[in-house]
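R.M. (postdoc): so does anyone remember the format we settled on? I'll just put the structure tokens first.
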């Protein structure tokens, strides 16, 4: 039963990436729009570990699928680093709070 719960908890970031990929033309400036609820839902279903894993998976998807290749964390404006850091902090807080 726990394995099924963990598998269900890991699905939201993948679903968010698929939905965002298909509707990218409509929500393109809002990179993190669907990943906040995905991490929240993952942490709510699976707890701390799946919330943290979902946060890392979401950052990976955004960085490699939705971020312009010309922008890299080390060479771009601080805007990308700030938004990614904010998402990371929020994902950790979601995971901690919902993991209790």
């Amino acid at each position: 039963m726990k394995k099924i719960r963990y598998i269900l908890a890991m699905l939201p970031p993948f679903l968010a990436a698929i939905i965002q990929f298909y509707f990218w033309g409509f929500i393109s400036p809002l990179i993190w729009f669907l990943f906040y609820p995905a991490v929240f839902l993952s942490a709510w279903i699976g707890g701390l570990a799946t919330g943290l894993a979902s946060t890392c998976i979401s950052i990976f998807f955004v960085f490699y699928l939705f971020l312009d290749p010309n922008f890299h964390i080390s060479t771009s404006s601080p805007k990308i680093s700030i938004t990614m850091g904010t998402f990371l902090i929020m994902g950790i807080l979601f995971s901690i709070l919902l993991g209790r």
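R.M.: ...and that's the designed sequence above, right after the tokens. Also worth knowing: DSSP finds five helices and no strands in the chain. The mean pLDDT is 83.
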